[in-house]
Design goal:
This protein is mainly alpha-helical and about 240 residues long. It is about 55% helix and about 0% strand. α4 crosses α7. It is globular.
């Protein structure tokens, strides 16, 4: 038996001599895996976070393939998130979102007056004494050619100056504008304060959209007049 055991031990080495290196190798692999897992646990997850934010970012209502500009949150009248050039983010050159909206609403109001005046004179309506003044862009030269016309232009200039002074926030009054373009300065109402917030926002959006259309309208009227192509009923062509 002893001879057989000795013979067997010579053929098969002790198990300890085989398993000990294997156990050491497994322990090293396990330790490395544990270290790798710990490192991964504390590694920054910024790329995954950025991807998640990019996927979950709110899209623009007007341009669904672009993200909504940060400052266009829908609180301003007529805001549908349209800003493909990123102009709403300009705030380091004295131009901010408030200034841009104030400029837009002012141009919109002037354009609505311009379209009204252009179409009114094209229909033949004149102030007394101005029956011989042509309509369209030709009226400017006609006014410059006469003394009375020059007086009219000076009166218009004076009116523009006064309108520019009046139509702004009065900083010297204890009053705060309710919204961009609110130039009432606490003096005019005409029932505005009786509307609820939703109605006010709706009416402001109506004014802004009409003003945007008027800006395109007056530009189209002037361009077609210079081209000599009428776009008015009855083929009326102002200035000709």
């Amino acid at each position: 038996l002893n001879n057989n055991a000795s013979s067997a031990s010579s053929v098969f080495p002790p198990v300890l001599s085989i398993t000990t290196p294997l156990n050491e190798t497994m322990m090293k692999v396990a330790a490395l895996a544990l270290l790798a897992g710990s490192a991964a646990a504390f590694a920054p997850a910024a790329p995954a976070s950025r991807t998640s934010v990019a996927l979950n970012a709110e899209k623009s209502a007007s341009l669904p393939f672009l993200n909504r500009p940060p400052l266009l949150d829908g609180s301003m009248a007529g805001d549908v998130g349209f800003d493909p050039l990123g102009l709403s983010n300009i705030d380091d050159v004295g131009i901010d979102l408030y200034w841009l909206r104030e400029a837009e609403i002012k141009h919109a109001r002037v354009a609505m007056l311009a379209v009204t005046g252009y179409l009114t004179t094209a229909a033949g309506v004149r102030f007394p004494g101005a029956e011989d003044i042509p309509d369209g862009l030709a009226s400017w030269q006609a006014l410059l050619d006469t003394k009375d016309g020059m007086n009219v232009l000076m009166q218009m200039t004076a009116f523009f100056v006064v309108a520019e002074i009046v139509n702004r926030d009065a900083d010297w009054l204890d009053n705060e504008a309710e919204f961009v373009g609110d130039f009432r300065n606490g003096k005019l109402d005409f029932g505005w304060d009786k509307f609820d917030d939703a109605t006010k926002l709706k009416k402001r959006a109506i004014e802004l959209n009409n003003g945007r259309a008027a800006q395109m309208g007056i530009l189209g009227l002037m361009v077609h007049e210079k081209l000599g192509v009428s776009i008015l009923p009855g083929n009326v062509l102002p200035g000709h």
